[in-house]
Structures are given as C-alpha cells and as structure tokens.
Amino acid sequence: MAQAHPKPGLRPFLPADVPMLAAIFTAAVQELTGDDYSEAQQEAWMAAADDEEFGKRLAADLTLIATLDGSPVGFASLRGKDHIRMLYVHPAVGRQGIATMLVDALEKLAGGRGAEKLTVDASDTAEGFFAKRGYVAMQRNSITVNDEWLANTTMQKTFGTGPASGALQ
C-alpha cells in the first residue's frame, strides 16, 4: 500500500532557522546541481552558507519556510516586491511539490504587494522549473562567487492584467 506524504506547511522565517536553512541550502547545491556546475563551482556556491551574511540576507527579505511535520525542508525569499532571491528544497523531499508551494506563495505575496511581474536569477538547475511556471528567459548572466564563475538566467513572469487573466474590459 502506498504511503501518503505528510502535508507540507508554510511559516515565516525566524532567526533561529539559519543553521537549518544553511544545511538545506548546502544539501540542495551539493546534491542537485552536479549536472550543471563543476565541483569547484558548487564548493564556491555552498560557501555562501558559511558566512554571517547568509542569515542577514534571509532576514532582509520576506523569507518563507516550508515544513513537513514541523521541520524545515525548504525555503524561498522575496526581495522587495518583485524578485525571488532564493529557492532551495532539501533533496530528500524533492518532487513533492515543496518548491511549487513556496513559489505559489511568493507569487501571491508579490501580487498583493502590487507587483506586475516577478523576476528570478535562476540557476541552470532551476531554469526548467521556472520555465514550466511561465517564466521567460530575459538574459544570461555570469557571476563571480568566491572566485568561481557561475552562470544563471534572469527570468521574468508577468502577472496577467488583460482579458486572458479574466479581467473585465
């Protein structure tokens, strides 16, 4: 008999979450990005979780925590009203709708804040996920992280305001 997955929950970020979120961040980069980034690039990327700025970045943004049975399993952050800054899900709970739930929530929050579009600098690993959600590639980027070059793609989703979205004319 198939076993049902527990229903995920959402809650706001708390400063005490930083160590657990750093572990989720590191596990996601280490285990999910190997097809798209070299080991040196992954090491440089993961080092971002080791500095005190990691917690400050999470606190500066609107950061949501996805939980299963009360334990954090993923997180996403919205910078300002219209930019997804981070989206990471622990590999052990991949393909269970956690990332979708987090991005759905950020899209609703962005819309509630008056955003007409939402952007994200998607890693090569995450680009397909965002494309399936209607995000369109706008530009390719190369960024330096701890002396390593990493590529990502700025993607954008425009929130419907025309007849296709059900708006009255």
TrEMBL record:
UniProt entry keywords in alphabetical sequence: Transferase
InterPro entries named among the record's database cross-references: Acyl_CoA_acyltransferase, GNAT_dom, N-acetyltrans/Recomb-assoc
Record flagged with keyword DNA-binding: no
UniProt xrefs under PROSITE patterns: GNAT
Ranges for domain N-acetyltransferase: 8-160
Database matches in Pfam families: Acetyltransf_10
Single annotated GO MF: acyltransferase activity, transferring groups other than amino-acyl groups
Protein's UniProt keywords contain Acetylation: no
TM segment ranges: none
Protein name: GNAT family N-acetyltransferase
